[in-house]
Amino acid sequence: MLHKNNEPLSAALPNVQSERLFARGHGVFPDGTTRATIERDPTPRYVQRGEGAYLVDVDGQRFLDLNNNFTTLIHGHGYAPVMDAVARLLRDGTCFSNPTVHEIDLAELLIDRIPSVEQIRFVNTGTEAVMFAIKAARAFTGRPCIAKIEGAYHGSYDWAEAGQGGTPSTWGSPDAPVAVPAYAGTPGSVADEVVILRFNDTEGARRRIAAAADRLACILLDPMPSRGGLIPPNPDFVAAVIETARHYGILVVCDEVLNLRQSYRGASSRYGIEPDLIATGKIIGGGFPIGAIGGSRDVMSVFDGSTGRAKLAQGGTFSANPVSMVAGRVSMAAMTEAAFARLDVLGDRLRAALTAAIERRQAHYVVSGTASLFRIHPKQTLPRDYRDAYPSSDEAALMKAMTRFFRNEGVILPDGAAACLSTAMTDADIDKIANTFDRFLAAAPVLEKETHS
């Protein structure tokens, strides 16, 4: 895509070493890398190192990082207190079959902060956290099925994946959303065991939960689904879900793997949700692999095997490994209420600056998000749910052009997902993001004309 003078929007940055590495990667990986989420346009940038709010690729290019490994690095890259603590720990060993004090330390910190959590189990990923939260709900209620929000991403467990990637041709009617399978060969029974709810559809939620109540173990709720537009829940929607669940003895499971970074006490507390279980991960590991399931003593008792076989056995070779425990404790201890408040201020300032640029340029874009999270949509109005947020082919092309423009200006902006801030960022970094967006919008009328042609 070209600027008004038929010159490229911004000069492409050197990518020679990344291209060579990608070619090597194709020799050993099915598509050149080991994660489907890696952005490639057409070649991914291979990272050499991270430096606070920035990362440096193998070609020596420096980028302000708004991805932060998919919202994980709340302190940015190479956070010194975590690096120092882990370096000291490595001399003592990295994993044991026995427990260590470090898992107790991190558990006590999280339980002290998150109102609905009385006990915790640690796992290795957000996917595992969601999976075991669902299993815990089944073990506690004796029911097999779950309800979840359409389009919400919850990792790679069959039932949690259902309905996360529907398209206009597959997602069904608004009144009866389809539990679209995530991959070819998914057992047909999975769709029969998942009820899909549209986000912020109050009456639809009441109706669909009630219709399947005798089979539902839990309602899996992301307080602000990233793929659903990064829109906050309406209070009446939250109330409807909670009241209906309580009436029928259905557990409420909040997935805060991403959204725990919304506040000192997490996203559920921010929106007045009192879940029975919380699945979390990402920021609680300080940059190392982690996941956790937490909840009331009553529900968490399904993991208790002290007097015989537990209703739900959960192990994991690397669960509660001391490296993740120590890194997580140090990282989270530094996330004081003041640190979260500062991120809120930076986030508010950035969203306001982005919106001001849109209004100044009279462009067809909107900005969503809260706290340290934001997302830019090439739309005239804020989406209400996944279907509204789903991009047309023209909108997807605009987002790709914007991501490419940002990258060529030295900023990593996720394409069609949540972008995030870190404590390593400064006011100057916020200005850099806003100014880059404004420069992009300066060419937006030409871009839209060319994209829609």
From TrEMBL:
Query: Ribosomal protein: present as a keyword of the record?
Result: no
In alphabetical order, the GO MF annotations are: pyridoxal phosphate binding; transaminase activity
- State the needed cofactors, names only: pyridoxal 5'-phosphate
Output the Gene3D superfamilies linked to this UniProt entry. Answer: Aspartate Aminotransferase, domain 1, Type I PLP-dependent aspartate aminotransferase-like (Major domain)
Q: Which InterPro entries match?
A: Aminotrans_3, PyrdxlP-dep_Trfase, PyrdxlP-dep_Trfase_major, PyrdxlP-dep_Trfase_small
Q: Tell me which PANTHER family the record gives.
A: GLUTAMATE-1-SEMIALDEHYDE 2,1-AMINOMUTASE (PTHR43713), GLUTAMATE-1-SEMIALDEHYDE 2,1-AMINOMUTASE 1, CHLOROPLASTIC-RELATED (PTHR43713:SF3)
Q: Which family does it belong to?
A: Belongs to the class-III pyridoxal-phosphate-dependent aminotransferase family.
What name appears for this protein in its UniProt entry? Aspartate aminotransferase family protein
